[in-house]
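Q: How would the structure tokens look for this protein?
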Amino acid sequence: MALSDAQIQALARDALQRAAAGDFISAEPVFAEIAEARPNSGQALHLLGQARLKLGRFAEAREPLERAAKFLPRDPSAQINLAGCLSELGAHEEALAALDRAQRLKPGDAAIAHNKGLALDALGRRNEAEHAYDEALSINPRLLPSLAARSALLAARSDWMAALADLDMALTERPGDAQLLMRRGELFLAQGDWLRGLDDYEARLDLPGRWRPDLPRWQGESLSGRLLLYPEQADIDRDDAARDSLMLARGVEATVQCSEKVAEWLEAPTIRRGDSLQGFVAAAPLRSLPRILGWSLRSLPPPQEVRLKAQSGDRVGWFARTGPPAGLAIERDPSRLAACKLAVGGDVPATHLAALMGIPTILLLEPTADWLWGPQSGPSPWYPSLEVLRDASSEALAARLARC
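A: Here is the predicted structure in token form.
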């Protein structure tokens, strides 16, 4: 039965009231009923798409938003919401086209320019993305998302001073913002400036998604009971959690909370996540130890001991994303590392295990490497047997291997 105009108006009032109260779950089916009754109503389609966006149902939001944008060609908000949906779905080229249409309808809008920067950044068009952020900030010099995004681009090309200036500007608007403080700390740390970076980096612990045990946080004081060191990752079986357990559990007598795989390797006492914490009086995240214990890249404690011991062998442990040069006898199983004469890999647990065993190890770092490694290539202070190579070409790596 077709709905009358009066019935549709009543439904619209009801749906808008529900949406205004934040109840998009019950508002969405009402908007869907209106859109079905008036399939050529751009406004009805737009409202339905917005409700589905709020519910995170991006794939379902796309069709009504695309239709709304066609029916409302002079409404910039219809283009903006479509672009947001497309970006969430990874359709960045289409999102960029929608934002171009929105910008023609509403020139001088900082948010549209910023969102164009995000789309261009996602497409790898970084110079154009930076220009879009510049445009957004010329309109609103204190637009926090653009300051943070431009800072990341500037840091990626090692323009540290400009990147820090953007973060400092953002922090004048929002002092104490944990995300901004953490980013500023990471910039200092990536340059090897631990003195200024470590305090800011602690702000990460105030962000959601970090795991922590139900124990007081240790700040370096003397204890009358056991100390727990733990990785912050919610999934303790992830490679980065294992890497932190292998790399950072040093310089203090403590029990390491780690995955079963890592526990098989370490000589130090370990517990699993979920084990009883009876007897423990404090805990510290592994990535806070440099600050708590006053480390620098020139004064690191020696690495911990592992159960596996190096033996003589003729194979090369290979744990890198790139393939090995031809002619090498390769081993990819970390449990057989002890019989390797050399190891090559990215910043993954097997590479750390090889270095802990004292096997000559070459670490291949990408441009976005963890700040823990510092800015330099060459012999690493973390492990006596490890050498860092940054952005090494296949030819450079082959030449380095030839010298081993």
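Residues 210-307 form one domain.

Residues 144 and 170 are 6 Å apart (CA to CA).

Upvote if useful.
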